[in-house]
Amino acid sequence: GEVDILVKTDNFPISLIEALRLSSVNEKYISEHIDKIYKYDTLGYEYNFIISYVKTSDFYDFYERYRNYIISYNYPYEMTSYDIDNYKQFAEIKTIEVNLNRENIDTKLLHILVHIPN
Fold it and tell me: What digits encode the pLDDT tens for the residues 72-114?
């Protein structure tokens, strides 16, 4: 496959965005999209994004399982830290920002989970 969205400024690429539709924490499917980002990010963008549209009846439980998977994931670069749920003002959005050391440069993969209620 191809990357869903390549963000450019002045015709220069700066970020990749992958979009997923999830109803469960499908680890294989999530892994494929994480790996796809790093297959196509050959420059080492400061920020990349995975936006997951989540259709589930128990969003918080889903978020906890997703978070546990993401923070234990074996990324292609060393994970140095992570921040969770920085946007608490939105009940139907959860975030996990993973900080990765790529050639001694701090890069980020921001997971954004958007709840689509049943």
Answer: 999 999 999 999 987 677 889 999 999 999 999 999 999 999 9
- List Cβ neighbours of 16 (8 Å cut-off, separation of 6 or more): 3, 5, 6, 7, 37, 40, 41, 45, 48, 49
Q: Cα Rg for the chain, rounded, in angstroms?
A: 14
Smallest Cα–Cα separation from 33: which of 48, 47, 13, 46?
Answer: 48
53, 14 in Cβ contact below 8 A?
no
- Helix (H) or strand (E) segment spanning residue 5: strand 5-9
pTM, two decimal places: 0.93
